[in-house]
Amino acid sequence: MSQSAASIDPAEIARFSAMAAEWWDPQGKFRPLHKFNPVRLGFIRDRIAAHFHRDSLSGRPLEGLRLLDIGCGGGLVSEPMARLGASVVGADASERNIGVASLHATEAGVTVDYRATSAEALAAAGEQFDAVLALEVVEHVADLDGFLAACGQMVKPGGLLIAATLNRTPKSFALGIVAAEYILGWVPRGTHDWKKFLKPHELAGSLRRAGLSLGEVAGVSYSPLNDRWSIGRDTDVNYMLVATKDA
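Structure for Ubiquinone biosynthesis O-methyltransferase, as requested:
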């Protein structure tokens, strides 16, 4: 795989490659994502189903839709999306991540088209999708506009893109960096660079430049009292964003 894509940050790829074997360990270094996953999966399923006029509570509401999970890591979202009926391409710049994801999907009996590649390479190949997911990845790329331009190019007319990331606020520094990395040890120190966190209007601006229109911004909050994540209005730390492409 070529590592020449402008959005790829080699240091970020190396950091996550080093942790690749732990993707599917719910008590390992990706424990926060395992805790977070049910909430974001429900959000993604419901928004895609509503957009394409599907019943989100049916067994396979995404049947017939082609979906890209860019920056898929070990496949924590790709696999569930495939189980919901979507034809899924899971792409990641780390070959080790793709190896772990492919092995797990094979063992689980789930079909996902995993590829060690970049958004730019996929776009250049003319790939098209009904929905593109960019989850916890935009804060790790080296060229945000270039990355999202490639993603926008791959969204079919009438399709949508869903992104999830962290806001750049004092609260996100306190909780997302100091607490998560140094006090609670939820993720390894140095996993995130607070300066690369994105305010919703910054991400929305980049999406507009990529030819997409902002649809919804929802906050994702953690409650230490019941150890649960939930969707709400508080976007100070984590948020998810839905953007659409005109038909």
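The chain has a mean pLDDT of 88.
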